[in-house]
Amino acid sequence: MHFTASSTPNPNAMKFTADQPLFTDRIEIIKSDTPASPILNGLIHIEGIVSLFGYHNFLTVCKTPDAAWDGLLPKIENLLAEISNPF
Q1: Which SMART domains match (predicted)?
Q2: In what side-by-side order are the strands of the sheet with 27-30?
Q3: Largest Cα–Cα distance in the chain?
Q4: b/e string for 8-17 if b means 16 or more Cβ within 10 A?
């Protein structure tokens, strides 16, 4: 599965669009949640990530204002590379 990262109007959010469907339904995850998916669980527990929103073929990752995308992107991309089936 291939992802394209793109910025959003919110500087604390980044959209990751997949080349195929990711989700069968909408997902919303906040820091205090424990998602069943190890990948989503890993993403939400990256320090600096506060929420995830996903629908169809995209995932939006929101960070804290003080977290830097330069440090977060490699961690996010490594976890996204593990996705082989829709959630």
Answers
A1: Nfu_N
A2: 3-7, 13-18, 58-63, 49-55, 27-30
A3: 33
A4: eeeebebbbe
| Residue of 17, 73, 12, 86 lying closest to 46 (CA atoms) | 73
Q: Which amino acid is at 17?
A: T
Does the reported pTM lie above 0.90?
yes
Give me the amino acid identity at 22.
L
Top-tier CATH class for 3-80: alpha beta
Structure tokens at 53: 């929103």
Which amino acid appears at position 55 of this protein? Y
The token duo for 56 is: 């169809």
Confidence at 85, pLDDT banded by 50, 70, 90: low
